Amino acid sequence: MTYELNDKVKNLTPYDAVTGNYKIRLDANESFINPGESLKEEFFSALAAVKFNRYPDPMAAGLCEGFARYYGINPETVVAGNGSDELISIIMGSFLRHGDKVMTCSPDFSMYQFYGKLYEKNNLVIDKKEDMILTAADVLEAAGKGKPAAIILSNPCSPTSLAMSREDILKIVENTDALVILDEAYMDFSDQSIMEVIEKHDNLIILKTCSKALGLAAIRLGFAVTSKPIARALHAVRSPYNVNAITQAIGVVIFSHPDYIKESIEKIKNARDQLFLGLLQLESNESVRRIIKPDTNFVFIELSNAAYVYEELKKRSIIVRQFGDFLRITAGTKMENDALIQALSEILV
Ligand SMILES: *Cc1c(COP(=O)(O)O)cnc(C)c1O
């Protein structure tokens, strides 16, 4: 007998995360702030109290309460996940049925279409215009024609770095019967969240992550914020102990330090502004086509020779992400941003 992988998975390749050793990593939109000694001591004390022989709290109740307190929302609307990536996978896999249409935008976070394909959904793609700006009218018009079962988008968007206004997002949510999955992974760097009105809507799931603003990409922790009925359904379809005890313990500690989180966000926003201003200094260079003013912790720039610049940065042990003619550059420490700008000023001559 021979087993054959099906066509759907046969030629898939693992997510192409950067794995090489680079001195300066500005590719994955992580925070450049690694928790300091005193916070780490608190993590270690919390870990010392973990019962390693027992399954974790299946509801991650303490963790969800901490998250809800920090964001000022009802804890009953919160479901924790093993990274928001897991939540995207669960929602795509179980809230939609075989062949359902899922509306995504391009460019946007690549995992949406990946899971859409993997779970045999029908991906409908809205191509963003040249200016990369997405409006409620664009989405509603496409949804009116395509009649998707779900619409998924990031706000602010990765990779474009642009946020839609709260009013525009609400217009979408209020004028469609589709489930709207709104990924607010970068909203801590902007101010257009609609999390506080979550209970007014029955077709909305907001996704949050601890991997970006909170500086905890290592522990894999994300959240869905949604109506109580959808939260109940999400609890029912996820695997029972999806968030491990170690992650839960560290998550509880981080949300007990709202001042630390807010200070970190301020530092990251300052670094982002420094990076943006530094890049603007290079704007007169003829290979620079545009530098988008970011609502995120990264800058998206268009170049006439992005692939070349990407390779040249790599030679200098600086890694960023390339998307066609664009580079997406995560804000790093002042030294890292300075090094990047210095390198670009040499490469772009
Ligand atoms: C980084 C990122 C995520 C992934 O978050 P995890 O919690 O680390 O899985 C989700 N959505 C967007 C738009 C991101 O950029």
Outline the secondary-structure elements.
Blueprint: H1 7-10, E1 24-25, H2 37-48, H3 61-71, E2 78-81, H4 83-94, E3 101-106, H5 110-118, E4 122-127, H6 136-146, E5 150-154, H7 166-174, E6 179-183, E7 204-209, E8 222-226, H8 228-237, H9 245-255, H10 258-280, E9 288-291, E10 298-303, H11 306-315, E11 318-319, E12 321-323, E13 326-330, H12 334-347
Parallel strand pairs: 1-11, 3-4, 3-5, 5-6, 6-7
Antiparallel strand pairs: 2-8, 7-8, 9-10, 10-13, 12-13
The protein binds pyridoxal-5'-phosphate.
In words, what does this structure look like?
This protein is α/β, with parallel strands linked by helices and 349 residues long. It has two domains: 7-30 and 260-347, Aspartate Aminotransferase, domain 1, CATH 3.90.1150.10; 52-256, Aspartate Aminotransferase, domain 2 (3-Layer(aba) Sandwich), CATH 3.40.640.10. The protein has helices spanning 7-10, 37-48, 61-71, 83-94, 110-118, 136-146, 166-174, 228-237, 245-255, 258-280, 306-315, 334-347; strands spanning 24-25, 78-81, 101-106, 122-127, 150-154, 179-183, 204-209, 222-226, 288-291, 298-303, 318-319, 321-323, 326-330. A hairpin with a 6-residue loop joins strand 9 and strand 10 (298-303). Helix 2 (37-48) crosses helix 9 (245-255). The mean pLDDT is 97. The structure holds pyridoxal-5'-phosphate. Pyridoxal-5'-phosphate (PLP) binds at residues 29, 83-85, 109, 154, 158, 183, 185, 209, 211-212, 217, 222.
